[in-house]
Specification:
- This protein is mainly beta.
- It has a domain of 92 residues: Immunoglobulin-like (Sandwich).
- The protein is 12% helix and 39% strand.
- A four-stranded antiparallel β-sheet has the order 1-2-7-6, with no helix packed on it. Strands 3-4-5 form a three-stranded antiparallel β-sheet, with no helix packed on it.
- A hairpin with a 2-residue loop joins strand 6 and strand 7.
């Protein structure tokens, strides 16, 4: 009789529930709401950081270089007043913050930024890196 009993595990389905709800449902619901950032190089001569900031205005975006870090910040505040409703003011706000460590050969003095159609494009020129010099190996005669 004891062989036929199955051990009950109250947590057996918990991991599947967590994976299905939090990983898939949460990410699917947030997709398109969290600003994305792309970082890439162009011909190993330029580092490009593109921050997709829809609904942000250029005047509310700041780009700074702090030591060896490129810092991008944006804030948005909206105020809505509806006289038909009982609240006086309805406010919403959102912010964006990213920090990137720049490579040693970044030309920090020549960094530029453009904002078009909700995309901030920061261009960081890269200084030429010295190419290694090959040393020929000879044989020693005695």
């Amino acid at each position: 009789m004891a062989k036929d009993l199955a051990r009950f595990d109250p947590f057996a389905g918990l991991e599947a529930f967590r994976r299905d709800f939090f990983d898939e449902h949460l990410l699917r619901s947030l997709h398109g709401k969290i600003p994305t950032t792309d970082v890439y190089t162009e011909d190993d001569k330029t580092l490009v950081v593109e921050a997709h900031l829809p609904n942000f205005e250029q005047k509310n975006i700041m780009v700074n270089i702090d030591d060896d870090n490129l810092v991008i910040q944006a804030e948005r505040h909206e105020t809505d007043q509806d006289k038909k409703k009982k609240y006086i003011t309805r406010e919403t706000s959102s912010s964006f913050y990213r920090s990137f460590i720049l490579p040693d050969h970044a030309d920090k003095a020549e960094v530029s930024a453009d904002f078009n159609d909700g995309v901030l494009k920061v261009t960081v020129p890269l200084k030429a890196v010295a190419t290694p010099r090959k040393i020929s190996i000879g044989t020693r005669t005695t």
